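Please, structure for the following, as tokens.
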Amino acid sequence: MAEHVHHVHLFTRDIDATVAWWRDLLGGVVAFDGDFGGSRNVFMHVGEGRLHFYDQRLRDEGKGAVHHVGIRTDDLYALHARLVARGVAIRSEVREFGSWRYVMCPAPDDVLLELFEVDGDQLDPALADYFLGAGWRDRPT
């Protein structure tokens, strides 16, 4: 048996606005929208990852143990430009560190996102596999 992280589940102030943000700005796809455990839940695919949203107000205004959610992209500059054009308040330009580039971005409900891109050809193979998935070199471009 192998365990893996499946999803991050977040409270929302406005579930419809939150779902629209993830759908419209980051290409999220709703997989389920209905009652689950006595509350409306929306389960979304965002690329290869998953997010779940509760239709419940935040229990407090603190972030608890969550610092940020990492979102990998294959064209960070285009994503950054698209988000800025849509009015997302990103406080910096893309930060470059050789094979790694990132920018921090606010999402609904004060969730901090790290939007990042890596160049697997410039990384140690184990680290490239970690970020891009095993077999990434064999995928068609």
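The chain has two domains: 1-58, 67-133. The mean pLDDT is 86.
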